[in-house]
Design goal:
Length: 171
């Protein structure tokens, strides 16, 4: 039963709940009912599952996966959809097109880099939920536009406060 629950829910996003990680425990299970004609056993179960959904203002640690002019993408060991918009970086930060990273120029004039693969601390600012309902078949037109598929769950984060950003800066 545990394997079937994990197969159905683990590593999937449930809207307004979060990212399901794994089965935790079984609270109750009914007696199995055998279906007519197919022989399958149906059992009603009540269980708990481990879910990832950080709360607002929670401080987390991750790694910078990439930087673009609009912001920085951060990932954890199990979740990739964390975005830090450029406006939520420390004041004085700018995007270096040659290095493809953000650079924070401190008040003293020192340049500190948000390098890729650097371990960073960030603060959860908000969540973004995108409905994954099927949209139906695409029309085959001459001016074909590629459909952008949004992640079902995305975290918008900030690194503008003291102590946030690359851990190397604050250790």
């Amino acid at each position: 039963m545990e394997d079937n629950i994990n197969l159905k829910y683990a590593n999937k996003v449930i809207q307004k709940i979060g990212l399901c990680i794994c089965f935790y425990d079984l609270l109750s299970a009914s007696e199995g009912l055998i279906g007519h004609g197919d022989g399958l056993v149906n059992v009603n179960v009540e269980f708990r599952i481990v879910v990832f959904r950080p709360f607002k203002f929670e401080i987390m640690t991750g790694r910078i996966s990439s930087s673009i002019e609009s912001g920085i993408r951060v990932r954890t060991h199990f979740f990739d959809e964390i975005f830090v918009p450029a406006r939520m970086l420390p004041e004085g930060s700018h995007f270096d097109h040659n290095e493809q990273v953000f650079v924070w120029r401190t008040e003293e004039g020192t340049e500190l880099f948000f390098d890729n693969q650097e371990t960073v601390r960030f603060q959860v600012d908000s969540e973004q939920w995108n409905d994954q309902a099927p949209l139906g078949p695409e029309k085959q037109d001459d001016n074909e536009e590629t459909r952008v598929i949004e992640a079902p769950y995305k975290i918008i984060a900030s690194m503008e406060n003291v102590g946030l950003g690359p851990c190397l800066w604050w250790d």
